[in-house]
Amino acid sequence: MLKQTRFRDLFLIWVVWAVIIIGFPAVLDSRLELKRPDRALSWTPQETARTSQNNKPYLLDPFMNRQVSWDSEYYLSIATVGYDDPDTRTVDVPGQGEVYLNYAFFPLYPYLIKIVRFPLQILNLTPVATSTLAGVLVSLVSTFFGMLALYDLTRDELEESGALRAVFYLLIFPTGFFLAQVYTEGLFIALAFGALALARRRHLFWAAVLAFFATWTRAMGAVLVIPLAFAWWQATGGWRNFRFSSRVILKGLLVLAPVLAYGLWQLALGTQHGLVEDNWFGRSFLDWERFSAGVQVAFEQIIEGGNPQMRAYYLLEFFGVTLAIVACLATLKKYPGAALFGLVGLVITMTTGAPQSLIRYVLVVPSIYIFLSRLGRNTAFDRGWTLFSILLLGMQLMLFSADMWVA
């Protein structure tokens, strides 16, 4: 049971963090202007010029404009109009015709925005501004529940101070600012971490419910079938004490909740999703050819490339991946379900195409914060990591708020 004082501490940390993350870009705007374009990747210069947003109406509304960029466009479009929105871009697919880019994105987050934006219309904001406010609120509230879930997941081993430290490391992670933007990270962490915490306590029904909806938020949610299966197997007593019964079979069916969710999504939107991902974003399931080619380019840039922006970008990407893999392996014995979820999900996510956005993808790997919190028992590491992470967080937030490429 979460103590009232600890709940208050988590709530106050969340409030202060949210105010800083939302307010800091305004300070940046008044103090400096970044030089355009961003040359972090081969394609970013054409997308980060001064007029690059002119064909993206959902990113032009001045209200809370620093909380939207890149993929925010599609979430706001789906929430405001729907998947078939004539104001958004399309890709011409051979043999299929024009397909809206919105179909690359999963439905739960924008549909929640659609629900939350309904009462907010009383504020008489523009439609895009109303959706933006709703999207930020969904992200922030979800993040708080994700904090509670991570705290519950780690408290038994790390004790209260260590669990609180793990939560703090989540908020200050170099891409932790995505938890307060119009992006899916906050909602996915709430659902996935909640499912992991409940599965660890063998509350399979509610863990399955959260895993189901996590899969409608991001494809990685389907990997939650692993910790659910592990929790079910433990609940049955394992190899030595396993006995077939109707109760055991019914609980076993709960394990399939994320698979069912993925299948339903595939039937409804999966075909269009695959077309857009492959033909526009250059990504597909276990695309080893694109992945290996992208890794080769990345290493060439790191070792001998003449573009310092690209080198810095790839170094941060590989730092995030290395940290995630080490953390998953280090926590595998104590948190097998969470560690395997992070490890398998990361491998699948990484190999959908050329390596990019990895430092954002690893944000949802819980083992990172468990591993760092263990190391954070050492005061020197705790202070050092906090300083290092917050400096990177500030840099990344500055880039995002200026519509530069981050992840």
Features:
17 helices, two-stranded antiparallel ribbon, 66% helix, mainly alpha, 407 residues
Topology (SSEs and partners):
Layout: H1 4-31, H2 44-47, H3 72-80, E1 90-93, E2 97-100, H4 108-120, H5 127-171, H6 185-200, H7 204-215, H8 225-235, H9 238-241, H10 246-254, H11 257-279, H12 288-304, H13 308-331, H14 336-350, H15 358-361, H16 366-375, H17 379-401
Antiparallel strand pairs: 1-2
Helix pairs in contact: 1-5, 3-4, 3-5, 4-5, 5-6, 5-16, 6-7, 6-8, 7-8, 7-11, 8-10, 8-14, 12-13, 13-14, 13-16
Description:
With 407 residues, this protein is mainly alpha-helical. It has one domain (4-401). The protein has 17 helices and two strands. It has helices at 4-31, 44-47, 72-80, 108-120, 127-171, 185-200, 204-215, 225-235, 238-241, 246-254, 257-279, 288-304, 308-331, 336-350, 358-361, 366-375, 379-401, and strands at residues 90-93, 97-100. It has a two-stranded antiparallel sheet. A hairpin with a 3-residue loop joins β1 and β2. α1 packs across α5, α3 packs across α5 and α6 (185-200) packs parallel to α8. The mean pLDDT is 93.
